[in-house]
TrEMBL record:
This is ABC transporter ATP-binding protein. Transmembrane segments: none annotated. GO terms for molecular function: ATP binding. CDD domains: ABC_DR_subfamily_A. InterPro entries: AAA+_ATPase (IPR003593), ABC_transporter-like_ATP-bd (IPR003439), ABC_transporter-like_CS (IPR017871), ABC_transporter_ATP-binding (IPR050763), P-loop_NTPase (IPR027417). It comes from Streptomyces siamensis. It is found in: Cell membrane.
Amino acid sequence: MNTNEHGDVIEVTDLRRVYGGDGRGRGAFEAVRHVTFSVGRGEIFALLGTNGAGKTSTVEVLEGLAPPAGGRVRVLGHDPYRERAAVRPRIGVMLQEGGFPSELTVAETVRMWAGCTSGARPTAQALDLVGLTRRAGVRVKQLSGGEKRRLDLALALLGRPEILFLDEPTTGLDTEGRHSTWELVRALRDGGTTVLLTTHYLEEAEELADRLAILHEGRVAASGTPAEVTGTQPARISFELPDGYHLGDLPPLARLGVSGHETAGRAVRLRTDTPQRTATALLQWADRAQVELRRLDVRSASLEEAFLRIARDAAAHGTDHRDKETAA
Ligand SMILES: Nc1ncnc2c1ncn2[C@@H]1O[C@H](COP(=O)(O)OP(=O)(O)OP(=O)(O)O)[C@@H](O)[C@H]1O
């Protein structure tokens, strides 16, 4: 069996991961706390979170590198730790640090890897996919940081994986490299590959992810499509007050559906859950007053704004359990 009845190729239910301790739970640290999510075949799913949120700890369990301390994980219908032999040939893993022998050339490195990979793509094709063809004869130690990331990606793609795990795939890449990696990831998805991605770049998640989960201190603080996650946050309306006008000259902000505001000189920024209503009322006021609202801009919350607010709210409601005892 490769998927559940919903077509999910990754299923994570109530996952826990615990580090350290004396075996009886004393001094242990629970890095992943009852995390649940699923990824459908052919989806790009992003795991986001602040440093230490538990992304790598979660992904390592999915890659079969560590057993869960609790909960259930299935990858292509298998337990990735106990049935590693069944899962490993069907997944591709791009780690944060590749660690290749630095004296080998790029092409030699790919060929060496291909020797351990069943059904590997031809070396030239793997290098072409990641834009490293012209660097094939260069020693790995001479590659830039961004080129090393691309070599990592070429190796992860060698076995034509059904599921690709990408741990911060574009860290160190320049803008062009980042965009070409995004294009490649989309093309792989369109070809049916499932991609699980961790990233610190919220723009990357916004560009790529079909769905995402934001982790905070080991828990899922928000999840859904990017539109669903940003849709929980207020929209923003900004404009410049006309000359001679003050904020108090506008209709009462609460009556416009405004939940918060900031000003800087003549610039005004309003937050609202009802952007259409607020913008309409503002424009009607400007029309009546016969003034122009210069630099008027109405936009939904960006993923970055949503992320910061969700992380802040989660921090305000949660506690850091690092020093607390945890039953493993
Ligand atoms: N081997 C370990 N032993 C003890 N604690 C660990 C170990 N590995 C990770 N942790 C802790 O578990 C928590 C989650 O770490 P993890 O690396 O999963 O976070 P992350 O979300 O991937 O962070 P980053 O974005 O910084 O890579 C952190 O507090 C980290 O210090």
